[in-house]
């Protein structure tokens, strides 16, 4: 039996993916499961190993890639990120909607697999607003902020190409963006809720 369709959330760093995703997972407990990626970046205050990411060294990450443990991996802003096969299998084994938060390289690479997710891009209203949100978040050094803004320019260009995303949500007003995300996923949410009744 095939389970619910996974969901790929992408879009520039600072666009609001984690904010939207955390709210969705809280409002629909027992419906979604987060695919916990591996990364070589340092944990931020409050981030938990195994929950937000599996925080690993470059050596360990490369070992996993060589072992073909990952369905996709990419270099972003000077660090490695990747989705392991087991991170998805763990969620799918529970019949939950698997949510992946990956960059645009991840989107392109997942398209080459048989995962068949719904692709949603979260975009900021403008690059200026994105910069302000990233600065206000206070998680980045100036160098890492500049790298993220450069990646954001590329993301904003590539995401416009027709056929890359099923849906593009401009995260201007958070409530409105959340409602759009929720309605796009309602059919899958309903399936999981019906199956659990
Ligand atoms: N390709 C790929 N990208 C990932 C993965 N995990 C996270 N990312 C992306 O890496 C970028 C940086 O993530 P992060 O360091 O958590 O910063 P944040 O998005 O600004 O909170 C974001 O665009 C994420 O979507 C992954 O497993 N694969
Ligand atoms: N609609 C919004 N309006 C204002 N600030 C927002 C909005 N959405 C998210 N933010 C803030 O912007 C910052 C980046 O959001 P975050 O969810 O961390 O982005 P991402 O996961 O895409 O990198 C956070 O500090 C968050 O609180």
Outline of this structure?
The chain is an alpha/beta fold and 197 residues long.
Please outline the helices and strands.
Layout: E1 7-10, H1 17-27, E2 32-34, E3 37-39, E4 53-55, H2 58-66, E5 70-76, E6 79-84, H3 85-92, E7 97-101, H4 104-110, E8 118-123, H5 127-137, H6 142-158, E9 167-170, H7 174-195
Parallel strand pairs: 1-7, 1-8, 2-7, 3-4, 8-9
Antiparallel strand pairs: 3-6, 5-6
This protein binds guanosine-5'-diphosphate and adenosine-5'-diphosphate.
Adenosine-5'-diphosphate is lined by residues 13-19, 133, 136-137, 171, 174, 177.
Protein described:
The mean pLDDT is 97. Helix 5 runs antiparallel to helix 6. The protein has one domain: P-loop containing nucleotide triphosphate hydrolases (Rossmann fold), CATH 3.40.50.300. A hairpin with a 2-residue loop joins strand 5 and strand 6. With 197 residues, it is of the alpha/beta class. It is built from seven helices and nine strands; from the N terminus they run E-H-E-E-E-H-E-E-H-E-H-E-H-H-E-H. Guanosine-5'-diphosphate binds next to strand 5, strand 6 and helix 4.
Any idea what the CATH superfamily is called?
A: P-loop containing nucleotide triphosphate hydrolases
Under CATH at level 1, the class stands as: Alpha Beta
Uncertain spans: none
Taking the alpha carbons of the first and last residues, their distance comes to: 18 Å
Strand content: 15-25%
The CATH architecture comes to 3-Layer(aba) Sandwich
The amount of helix comes to 40-55%
Shape: globular
């Amino acid at each position: 039996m095939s389970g619910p369709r996974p969901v790929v959330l992408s879009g520039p760093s600072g666009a609001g993916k984690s904010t939207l995703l955390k709210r969705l997972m809280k409002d629909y407990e027992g419906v979604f499961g987060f695919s916990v990626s591996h990364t070589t970046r340092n944990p931020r205050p409050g981030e938990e190993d195994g929950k937000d990411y599996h925080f690993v060294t470059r050596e360990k990450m490369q070992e996993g890639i060589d072992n073909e443990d990952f369905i996709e991996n990419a270099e972003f802003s000077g660090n490695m990120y990747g989705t392991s096969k087991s991170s998805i299998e763990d969620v799918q084994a529970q019949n939950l909607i698997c949510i992946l938060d990956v960059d645009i390289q991840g989107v392109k690479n997942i398209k080459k697999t048989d995962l068949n997710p719904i692709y949603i891009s979260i975009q900021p209203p403008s690059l200026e607003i994105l910069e302000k949100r990233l600065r206000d978040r206070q998680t980045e050094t100036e160098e890492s902020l500049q790298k993220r803004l450069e990646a954001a320019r590329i993301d904003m260009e590539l995401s416009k190409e027709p056929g890359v995303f099923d849906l593009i949500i401009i995260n201007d007003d958070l409530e409105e963006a959340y409602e759009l995300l929720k309605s796009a996923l309602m059919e899958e949410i309903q399936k999981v809720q019906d199956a659990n009744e």
